[in-house]
Specification:
Chain lengths: 233, 233
C-alpha cells in the first residue's frame, strides 16, 4: 500500500477525513461481499444435494446484490469502487487463503461464524457514521437465512457423529484467530477507518472503555453462535 | 432413471404429453442455469483482476436469477422443480466433468461457445411450445454481456500470443463433441422432450428435413461464434 494515496490521509476535524473513512468502510464491505459471494458459490458447488446447492446459490446471489449496492453508493459519492476496495484485498484474501475449509461442514461453519463476527463488527462501526450510510450498512448485512441453514446442517451432522464437534470447535477458534489478526492489520494500515471507532473527526467515536465493552460484546456473540451450532467456543 | 416416472410417459395427442414435455424443457433449462451459475462463479474466482471478477460475478448472479424464474414457473404449473431437474443431472454433470477448463481462457471459451450452442438450441425448441413458455425461455436465455466479455478477453490473449489460438480451437471442438454426445443421451432417454422437436402431440413439431436445417443453423452459428473469438471451428 502507498501512504501517499488520498484515502490514507489521517482524518481531521473537517469532512475530508470522515469521507475517507466512509469510503474505506464501504470499500472493505464491498470486497468482503464480493469474496463472500465467491466463497458461498464454491460452497454451493460442494454441497451434497440439489436443494442444498440451490439454497446456498441463492445466498451467494444475495451477497452479490449487496456488493452491487455498495459499489453504487461509492459511485454516488464520486469514489472509484475499485480504488476503494484495493487497500483491503490483501487482508481479506489472506484471511480466506489461511482458512480454506476442508469439506462442506467447515465451509458452513466458516460462513456462519465468520459472517457473524463481521456483521456484529460492522453494526458496531455503523453507530459512528451518518444515518444514510448506517442504513446502507445495515441493509447489506441482512442475512438471507444462511445462519439457520448452517445451524441445522451442522447440528444434524453432530447428531450423526459426535466426534465432528471437537474438530469443528477447533476450526471455529482458528477462524476467530485469523479474523482478529487480519483486522489488526487493517486497523494499523487504515487510519481513516480506525478513526471511525476511536474518534478523531467530527462524528465522534468510542473511548477506550467503550472499545473494551465492544470487544466483550463481539466475543459474547461469537460464543453464543458457537453454542447454537452445538460447539464450544 | 426410472421408466415408470410420469415425466417419461411418451407424449400423446392430449395435454398430458405436452405438459410433460414443457416440464422437461423447464427442468433441463433450470439445472443448466444452476450449474451455469456455479461454473461462472468459479470462473469469477479464477479471474485475474478485480473488474473481471466483478463482471463475471454479475453474470453468474444473473444466471441464478434465471434459475429462480424457471423454478417459479415449474411451481406455478404444480410441478416439483427438483423432480423436473433430476432426469438431466447426470448428463449435465457429465458434460461439465468431461470439459473442466484448464485455466481462465478455456473457461471463457467454454462459457461463450457452450452457452451459445445451448441458447440457439433452446430458441429452436421454443418454436414448438406455447407463447407463454416461449417468452419465459427467451427471457432466461438473455445474455447479460458475457459474450462480449469473452470475445474481447480471448481476442486480446491471441494478440499477445498467437499459439493460444490452436489450443483454444481444439478445445472448442471438444466442447461441441461432448455437448452433442450428452444431448443425444438426453434425446434417447426423454421421449417427451424429444417429441417437442419431432412432433407427436398437439403442438406439432419438425419433420426430418426441418431437423436437418436446424442442425445446419446450429453448426453455422457455432462456426460464426468461433470466428468472432478469432478461432477456427
Amino acid at each position: 500500500m502507498d501512504a501517499a494515496t488520498p484515502d490514507q490521509t489521517p482524518p481531521t476535524e473537517d469532512g475530508a477525513g470522515y469521507r475517507a473513512a466512509v469510503v474505506d468502510l464501504l470499500g472493505v464491505l464491498a470486497y468482503g461481499e464480493l469474496t463472500g459471494f465467491l466463497r458461498m458459490a464454491a460452497d454451493a458447488d460442494a454441497a451434497p444435494t440439489l436443494p442444498d446447492k440451490a439454497a446456498l446459490g441463492g445466498l451467494a446471489a444475495a451477497e452479490f446484490h449487496h456488493y452491487e449496492l455498495l459499489v453504487a453508493r461509492l459511485q454516488e459519492m464520486g469514489a472509484d469502487p475499485e480504488a476503494a476496495m484495493d487497500p483491503f484485498i490483501a487482508a481479506i484474501d489472506e484471511f480466506h487463503a489461511r482458512t480454506r475449509p476442508n469439506g462442506w461442514l467447515e465451509g458452513l461453519v466458516k460462513a456462519y461464524v465468520g459472517d457473524g463476527i463481521a456483521t456484529d463488527f460492522y453494526r458496531e462501526v455503523s453507530a459512528y457514521v451518518d444515518p444514510s450510510t448506517a442504513a446502507l450498512v445495515h441493509s447489506v448485512l441482512e442475512n438471507g437465512g444462511q445462519a439457520e441453514f448452517a445451524v441445522q446442517a451442522v447440528r444434524a451432522s453432530i447428531e450423526r457423529d459426535e466426534r465432528i464437534a471437537g474438530r469443528l470447535a477447533l476450526w471455529g477458534r482458528r477462524l476467530v484467530g485469523e479474523a482478529i489478526s487480519q483486522a489488526q492489520r487493517v486497523a494499523v494500515e487504515r487510519d481513516a477507518l480506525s478513526s471511525l471507532l476511536v474518534g478523531g473527526h467530527d462524528h465522534g467515536g468510542a473511548d477506550l472503555a467503550e472499545l473494551g465493552r465492544m470487544f466483550a460484546r463481539l466475543t459474547d456473540a461469537h460464543t453464543r453462535r458457537m453454542g447454537r451450532l452445538g460447539l464450544n467456543a
